[in-house]
Amino acid sequence: MSKKRLTQYVLLAVLLVLVPQFVRSDYALHLMIMVAIYGILVLGLEIILGQTGLFSLGHAAFFGMGSYTSALLVMRLGMPIWLGIVLAVLASGILGFLLGFPTLRLRGDYLAIATLGFGEIFGLILVNWDSLTHGPMGIPGITRPEIFGVVFDKRMYLYLIVLLFILALAAAFRISNSFLGRTFRAIRDDEDAAEFLGIHISKYKILAFIIGGMFAGLAGGFYAHYVTFISPDSFTYEDSETLLAMVFLGGAGTVIGPVVGAVVLVLLPELLSFMVQWRMLVVGVIMVLVMIFRPQGLMGGGMKFLKIKKKEVARIGEKE
Amino acid sequence: MLKVHTKRSAATVIAVITALGLILGGCGSGGNSPASSSSAGGKLDIGWVAPLTGSSANDGQQMLNGAKLAAKEINDAGGINGKKINIVAQDDKADPKEAANIANMFAGNKHLVAVLGNYNSSCGLAGAPVYDQAKLPMIHVGTSPVFSQQNHPYVFRISVTDAFQGSFVTQWMFDEGHKNVAIIYENDDYGRGLKDTVSSEIQKLGGKVAGTWSYMLGQTRDYTGILTDVKNSGADAIFIGGLYTEGALIGKQMQGLGIKLPVYGTDGLYEESLIKLGGSAVNGWKVSGLFLPTENDPKLQKFIKSYQEAYHSTPGTYAALDFDAMNLLAKVIKTVGTDREKIQAYLAKMPEPFGGVTGNIVFNEHHDAVRKTLKKLVVKDSKWQLFQQ
Amino acid sequence: MILQQLINGIMLGSVYALIALGYTMVYGVMKFINFAHGDVYMWGAFFAMFLAHFLGGQFLPVLILTMILTGILGVLVERVAYKPLRRAPRLVVTTSALGMSIVLSNLARLLIGSATYPMPKVLAVHDFKLGPSAVINNIQILVLVTAVVLMVLLNWFVNRSRYGKAIRAASEDQETAGLMGVNMDNVVSVTFFVGSSLGGAAGLLVGMYYDAVYSTMGYAAGLKAFTAAILGGIGSIPGAMFGGLLLGIVENFAGAFLSNYRDGIAFLVMILVLLFRPGGLFNAKIYQKRV
């Protein structure tokens, strides 16, 4: 690590510690927390969709799985929250395996509709399995984390989620730059060619679902203990759609792009909240405009400081 | 090469996000409230939140109409202690995540005196911990029993509880000799609550449930499958635990299938739209309700008349509930001032019931509105009328 | 009882099938899921509502005008949101379609309102008894007949007409078709016009059948129709028809016997079908086979 880089990191760390201290408004803290939660969520979808090219419309199910796992383990079995969140990550990973396995034969839009179906079925189970999930009433009063006997306040939540987000971001970059990431992209760009090169396609596709699911499980576990109320309404198809839009808005395949997409789509409706009735219309118009004028996404190729080849981004989803 | 650059870009972007946080922090600390709130004469900011987009948008809109009408009447009469009510309306999209966002926005707005809100129980429950923490009183129309279990000190519910309505209608069905009831309900907390109460009440009274069928609010449009099965179940009456749009569809499809069973429901069905959409198919439907446009109560007559003038339609349950909630708040503020804790204390221990258009309201220890009676309403000649034996 | 449930299922299925055709047409040529189609269908229902209000009980004029208006809307949507993206990866177009779907449904809410509106009477209802316990009415028969007629016409159009030829050529290979003198812009416009006008017809028929029109009706119906299109094998016209009917029947029986899991069972059947036939029931190459 060069001296310059070191200074950069130290500066960044200091900034991250200090900034929340100066934010007076709980609302702003809350929005930053939501941005970070969505940031982790889209990093998972980025691995499934952006890197591996698996068109998944059921990402909200992983989010829900994480939330419910941790909430139920902590509330019913009295587990410590930290363990609950770790197990939530595992459970969502297992759900990723369960979902990835049967869908191996499906490609493109058929995969999309199958994952959509899984997501809907997952939602119905949440609604109908009352004895476990408490049905549509949801689970209220979920335990808040505490440290040295002090219950978390918003600022502490923010520090925790930013820490988790940085870990997730680092993991996503590592995966993207490793052999694993290159394999994922090989499958995305040309499945047949990848197979010809001796890549075990099924294994890596399932792995993409597992890793993506684990990211969402982390976000879900944190979310449950932050908002302290979860219900099936929070993990619907519309949420999967929003996550999908975040990935493409920011730029699929760029790792950082989807995070930017999450920042935009979480904050934009809030910044537009003075328009009340009109804001969703404006959000829709902006989505269309961004796609028309920056089809590669906000952070996709063409931006000099990113130096990611436009070609690489543009290739996603072209091949069937 | 790529590695280095992406890492640097990551740093750049984190910095951008942090900067964004700073901006948000700057504007969030006061930007959401009107700057003029301290100006002469002054305003009283009341938060309002419910779905204004998505499949429940219509109910949210009606609630807003009711609240706005009450605010306008109060302001025209000189406001509260000289201050005019200003409604800060927000849309929760019927999404608990968005409801939590808005609860935080409201909690950070120091000018807000109280909040009216949330149509969906799940949205109310997502926001409730935030309102408690910010000590911001909130009057909610949700009915989920979870509220009572959780006992949120700052959240009050103005609507009729499922338990009260459910047992009221069950008794009514029994009085009319229906002892084998088919229950069709909305598969969410509202419909579930009603289904559970009605099922257990029927059994308590010695009758039986012919079967229960559920549908998804805003999604299910075809009830022919359910209704054909209901017809075969041998039920002698149908109870609908749901809202008017779905109710009207069920009615019309019953007519199409030639099913002529008596239908009962609760205040969720009480709406002009049920008749507008259902036409002759909903004639004879019996519904428990809070008020009737034709009643001779001057307060109610005034409400109905001004609502019709302003919005060219007859108010239903939700418009009336928000109208009452706003008037109740105005009364409390007039009495105890704008201190949030005092407002909470007043609502928690009301010295006298508040006489609203939906009847007398007083909150119990769980902060549920206690109602003494409900009205028996029936659709007759395509009009809502009082049920007569 | 079984017969009645079957009739109910076929009714629901033919509605899904009509909407599914729009997804399939567009997919055949453009190879992307037009998420805005459900909302185009919703606008079709609103056009039909206004036309029925002004024209009264004249079914055919209302149907034809609705189809023309909705077709024009479809072409407009394509011009605005998809045409600039002709060369972009199709998932980008999909995102644009998601945005367009939000725009269309919110426009309807803002311009018309969020209430549920009844459809003005286009036809009087007559019931027909089928056996001891089954009923069907003339509107249901009309929905079914119109759906079948439109599908037969569409099949003829795609397989026999000059434009159909161009559409098939374009769906095979856009570049080669272009070199052979097929004007891609025209082909795409015609495709969107035809697909959307079928959505408009579905809007009218569904509006008549359920007698209810509202700004969010495109969402649930679009989701199901899209599922039906994939189930049948997206890009295949008989596939859309068959997928729609199958989905409608399964959903109806599931709704009666296991109503809590109604949609879940429909999706489960779909997943199972896809597992054994990963290309859908009619794994036909787009527009190649004739019925």
From TrEMBL, chain A:
<keyword id="KW-1133">Transmembrane helix</keyword>
<keyword id="KW-0812">Transmembrane</keyword>
<dbReference type="Pfam" id="PF02653">
    <property type="entry name" value="BPD_transp_2"/>
</dbReference>
<feature type="transmembrane region" description="Helical">
    <location>
        <begin position="81"/>
        <end position="101"/>
    </location>
</feature>
<dbReference type="GO" id="GO:0015658">
    <property type="term" value="F:branched-chain amino acid transmembrane transporter activity"/>
</dbReference>
<feature type="transmembrane region" description="Helical">
    <location>
        <begin position="156"/>
        <end position="175"/>
    </location>
</feature>
<protein>
    <submittedName>
        <fullName>Branched-chain amino acid transport system / permease component</fullName>
    </submittedName>
</protein>
<feature type="transmembrane region" description="Helical">
    <location>
        <begin position="280"/>
        <end position="297"/>
    </location>
</feature>
<feature type="transmembrane region" description="Helical">
    <location>
        <begin position="110"/>
        <end position="129"/>
    </location>
</feature>
<feature type="transmembrane region" description="Helical">
    <location>
        <begin position="7"/>
        <end position="23"/>
    </location>
</feature>
<feature type="transmembrane region" description="Helical">
    <location>
        <begin position="244"/>
        <end position="268"/>
    </location>
</feature>
<dbReference type="InterPro" id="IPR001851">
    <property type="entry name" value="ABC_transp_permease"/>
</dbReference>
<keyword id="KW-1003">Cell membrane</keyword>
<dbReference type="InterPro" id="IPR043428">
    <property type="entry name" value="LivM-like"/>
</dbReference>
<keyword id="KW-0472">Membrane</keyword>
TrEMBL record, chain B:
<protein>
    <submittedName>
        <fullName>Leu/Ile/Val-binding protein family signature</fullName>
    </submittedName>
</protein>
<keyword id="KW-0732">Signal</keyword>
<dbReference type="InterPro" id="IPR028082">
    <property type="entry name" value="Peripla_BP_I"/>
</dbReference>
<dbReference type="Pfam" id="PF13458">
    <property type="entry name" value="Peripla_BP_6"/>
</dbReference>
<dbReference type="InterPro" id="IPR000709">
    <property type="entry name" value="Leu_Ile_Val-bd"/>
</dbReference>
<keyword id="KW-0029">Amino-acid transport</keyword>
<comment type="similarity">
    <text>Belongs to the leucine-binding protein family.</text>
</comment>
<dbReference type="InterPro" id="IPR028081">
    <property type="entry name" value="Leu-bd"/>
</dbReference>
<feature type="domain" description="Leucine-binding protein">
    <location>
        <begin position="45"/>
        <end position="371"/>
    </location>
</feature>
<dbReference type="GO" id="GO:0006865">
    <property type="term" value="P:amino acid transport"/>
</dbReference>
<keyword id="KW-0813">Transport</keyword>
<dbReference type="InterPro" id="IPR051010">
    <property type="entry name" value="BCAA_transport"/>
</dbReference>
Automatic annotation (TrEMBL), chain C:
<keyword id="KW-0029">Amino-acid transport</keyword>
<dbReference type="Pfam" id="PF02653">
    <property type="entry name" value="BPD_transp_2"/>
</dbReference>
<keyword id="KW-1133">Transmembrane helix</keyword>
<keyword id="KW-0997">Cell inner membrane</keyword>
<dbReference type="InterPro" id="IPR001851">
    <property type="entry name" value="ABC_transp_permease"/>
</dbReference>
<feature type="transmembrane region" description="Helical">
    <location>
        <begin position="265"/>
        <end position="284"/>
    </location>
</feature>
<dbReference type="GO" id="GO:0015192">
    <property type="term" value="F:L-phenylalanine transmembrane transporter activity"/>
</dbReference>
<dbReference type="InterPro" id="IPR052157">
    <property type="entry name" value="BCAA_transport_permease"/>
</dbReference>
<dbReference type="GO" id="GO:0042941">
    <property type="term" value="P:D-alanine transmembrane transport"/>
</dbReference>
<comment type="similarity">
    <text>Belongs to the binding-protein-dependent transport system permease family. LivHM subfamily.</text>
</comment>
<feature type="transmembrane region" description="Helical">
    <location>
        <begin position="6"/>
        <end position="28"/>
    </location>
</feature>
<protein>
    <submittedName>
        <fullName>Branched-chain amino acid transport system / permease component</fullName>
    </submittedName>
</protein>
<keyword id="KW-0812">Transmembrane</keyword>
<feature type="transmembrane region" description="Helical">
    <location>
        <begin position="139"/>
        <end position="158"/>
    </location>
</feature>
<dbReference type="GO" id="GO:0005886">
    <property type="term" value="C:plasma membrane"/>
</dbReference>
